[in-house]
Amino acid sequence: MGTQESNEGLNGTGPGRRALLGAAVLGAGGAVLGVPATAIADEKHGGAGYKSLPKPTIIGHRGASGYRPEHTLGSYQLALDMGAHVIEAGDLVPTKDGHLVCRHEPEIGGTTDVSAHPEFASRKTTKLLDGVSTTGWFTEDFTLAELKTLRAKERIPANRPHNTLYDGRWEIPTFEEVLRWREEQSRKRGRQVWIYPELKHPTYFRKLGLGLEERVAKVLRRHGLDKKNSPVIVQSFEPTSIQRLNKLIGNPLVVLLSAANTRPWDFVETGDPRTVADLVKPAGLKEISSYAQGIGPTLDLIILKDASGNLTTPTTLVRDAHAEGLILHPYTMRNENPFLPANFRKGTDADGYGDAFGAFRTYFATGIDGVFTDNPDTGVLAREDFLKR
Fold first, then answer.
1. What is the rounded (10 degree) CA torsion for 33, 39, 42, 44?
2. Three-state DSSP class for residue 386
3. Can you tell me the distance from the alpha carbon of 228 to that of 300, in angstroms, rounded to the nearest whole number?
4. To the nearest whole percent, how much of the chain has pLDDT over 70?
5. C-beta separation of 148 from 75 below 8 A
6. Residue 90 confidence (pLDDT)
7. Closest CA to 220 of 193, 248, 239
8. pLDDT at 212
């Protein structure tokens, strides 16, 4: 998910988060303890397009990033094994030589070991990224071969100290590698594996001569995954990027929406005065429905919070979006206290788990079509609980 979440690495220490995996992975077949085998076997959702996805849909956010360094094949694989219906693989950014790779941001100092490579010390620089001065190492300053010498690491170790065990294990995957992995897993499982890539900072990269939309469309076409019913949903925080994609590919498209008082960066660049608050009004949703099939709002647009961070009253967004034929896949559910609404936290440990099941249940009750989560196993069990009620 987008830049809007890049400040989520909250500081804090604690004695260690609760061991609440919620489901133990049994193997590559996708069976999970606590989830009936028939539930997974029945959910083939393979050829009828995005409308055939189970509801509510559990989307592995950057894979199973609650348990593995995000946007690695290890994280994607674990999310699939835990029963996620769709894997967000990945956030797409370009290399200097035009390849697409999967990173949360083009700045990779926080998600790789690049700072430990003296040969790249001179690449550290400061850039203006969507109006924000950002210092670090950027994918567009590296060739793919150079990036392949790096290894991924945990982005928010204060909240996920256990994930640091896996630092250095996986490379930065390319989008091509993700699509080959998807094809292999689809064969093994006898069903289409769905993925949900995001285009990161498309206006920024287009100015650098590294337009993302055409590159993504080319790769999807090469793999025969650019059709209406292809198991690939494409998303972006920039509406004009989704409009551009709508002319290039037939895939289902989703406009991501950050806080109500923010403006998409492409709007800032073009002088469009509208904010997200305007886009979630009926008129804004009607316009979005002319070129996209869904929206990915922050959870705060689904249920408002009070000054203390407690959930209050649902907005009309679910009803209004559904009235325009749009699906809603809000982001992001996480098990750790700092990321949960205040009334679902337990204790104050930055890496401690709160009442994630209660939070899932509350959001599902609004009628959302699915949710992004760093903890797919918790999401799968919460969904099963919700459907039994």
1. -70
2. helix
3. 30
4. 88
5. no
6. 86
7. 248
8. 98
